[in-house]
Structure formats: structure tokens, C-alpha cells
Write a structure and sequence with these properties.
The protein is an all-alpha fold. The chain has one domain. Helices cover 62% and strands 0% of the residues. The chain contains three helices and no strands. The longest helix is centred in the N-terminal third of the chain and has 18 residues.
């Protein structure tokens, strides 16, 4: 028997993008990374992924970024 599970991703609003951008810039600044650095690009992908799957509080996202 096959079961299909549909995962719904959240749609990003302009406010959400501003928040994620701010968190990424904060993370990059604390590590002296350029925003175009490979590590920064990977962190950006992870931020969006976490957000799409329900982690939407800045402090939670900041904590997850800190584990990188």
C-alpha cells in the first residue's frame, strides 16, 4: 500500500524575506563573511528551508544558524 504525504511549504511574504535577509546579514557579519560566500549561500538555503517548514520566529532561526 502506498501512502503519499504532501508537505505544504509556506509562502514567503516581503516581510518574511526582509526578516530572513536581516538574519543572514547578521550571521554573515558575525563571521566576517561576504554575503556571496559559499557558507552564506548554504546558510541562506537552510534559513528558507527552516522557514518553509514552520520555524518562523527570529530567535529560533538565529539559534539554528548558530549551530552552523
Amino acid at each position: 500500500m502506498s501512502h503519499k504525504v504532501a508537505l505544504k511549504k509556506r509562502v514567503l511574504s516581503s516581510n518574511d524575506l526582509d526578516m530572513l535577509d536581516g538574519l543572514l546579514k547578521e550571521w554573515c557579519d558575525s563571521r566576517h563573511y561576504d554575503i556571496l560566500n559559499l557558507e552564506a549561500q548554504e546558510a541562506a538555503r537552510e534559513l528558507v528551508m527552516w522557514f518553509e517548514f514552520g520555524v518562523d520566529k527570529p530567535h529560533q532561526l538565529r539559534e539554528l544558524l548558530a549551530t552552523r
